[in-house]
Design a protein that fits this description.
Strand order of the largest sheet: 3-4-5-6
Radius of gyration: 32 Å
Number of domains: 3
Number of helices: 7
Order of helices and strands: HHHHHHEEHEEEE
Number of strands: 6
Helix content: 55-70%
Largest sheet: 4 strands, antiparallel
Length: 290
């Protein structure tokens, strides 16, 4: 989770706790005869009219204990809500401290360079894939137009089926990131079938930066699980195939790191994508036994 998102959650939890504290105070202030009578004023006279011979003191004797119980129950419920909110706030505060520590830690440059190269390749792919998205929207428009204006065509059913298959085929070529970072570019002042989608680079960079950051720390975590705290990563390099490889020295072990181009949904990939041919890597980390 990004630091900015964690800070927003912390702010929301702090506001929630303030609101709960006001609720608790309201219940605590309510535990007085003055508040009781203010709360019950609209009921007392009617109760006395319906119970001849009874007085306000009789009303208090009958209902005041239950009223205090409701106040205590409200305080108890609010305190439970507060404990839960405080626990969540503390969790987010720990997350924030961890993310800020990461941000302040000098990154291993070779991994950064590797992921920067991947981001360049992913950007180029999304740029090309945008044409597939435009083709899909065009076919979608063609399908809708034919569906609405083909009621007299004897071959309507077969043509609709063919258009539907073509539309689904084009849709299958579109990477989820392509659609997520697409924005409409109008050819005129009003929307038309001639409009097309282009890359929203601000959104695309946001996606790729988060992906690269997540995978950077994922790889570091895998190395540290075997090597301990990283002492020397100067043995890492980008090899002739464009993969990270080399030796990392930790305070517990020395490990060999190697990345290989991987297919499928294997665990341990440096670069994980939701779908599509943007290349990704499977990371192998092994202890070097002395």
């Amino acid at each position: 989770m990004k630091i900015e998102d964690i800070k927003k959650r912390i702010e929301q939890k702090e506001k929630q706790i303030e609101k709960i504290d006001r609720r608790i105070k309201k219940f605590e202030d309510g535990k007085s005869e003055k508040k009781f009578w203010k709360d019950q004023d609209w009921l007392v006279d009617r109760w006395i009219r319906n119970n001849p011979g009874k007085t306000k003191e009789d009303y208090k004797t009958k209902f005041y204990p239950d009223y205090l119980d409701r106040m205590d129950s409200g305080i108890k419920s609010a305190n439970r809500d507060r404990e839960e909110a405080v626990a969540q706030l503390e969790k987010y505060q720990r997350m924030l401290a961890g993310e800020e520590e990461k941000r302040n830690t000098e990154k291993i440059q070779v991994i950064v360079d590797f992921l920067d190269k991947w981001k360049e390749e992913a950007t180029a792919y999304i740029e090309n894939n945008m044409e597939d998205l435009n083709n899909y929207y065009q076919k979608n428009h063609e399908y809708s137009d034919y569906y609405n204006h083909s009621w007299g065509d004897p071959d309507r059913k077969e043509k609709l089926k063919k258009l539907d298959q073509e539309e689904k085929q084009l849709k299958s070529l579109v990477h989820p990131w392509t659609k997520e970072c697409a924005k409409w570019e109008r050819t005129d002042d009003v929307a038309s079938s001639n409009d097309k989608v282009v890359v929203n680079y601000e959104k695309l960079n946001e996606i790729l930066d988060k992906e690269a950051d997540d995978k950077y720390w994922g790889l570091v975590k895998r190395i540290e699980e075997l090597a301990g705290n990283i002492v020397d990563a100067r043995g890492l390099e980008i090899g002739p195939r464009g993969n990270i490889e080399g030796i990392v020295v930790g305070d517990k072990e020395k490990v060999r790191v190697e990345t290989i181009v991987a297919g499928g949904w294997n665990a341990g990939r440096i670069v994980n994508v939701k779908k599509g041919p943007i290349r990704h890597y499977r990371t192998i980390v092994n202890v070097i036994h002395r």
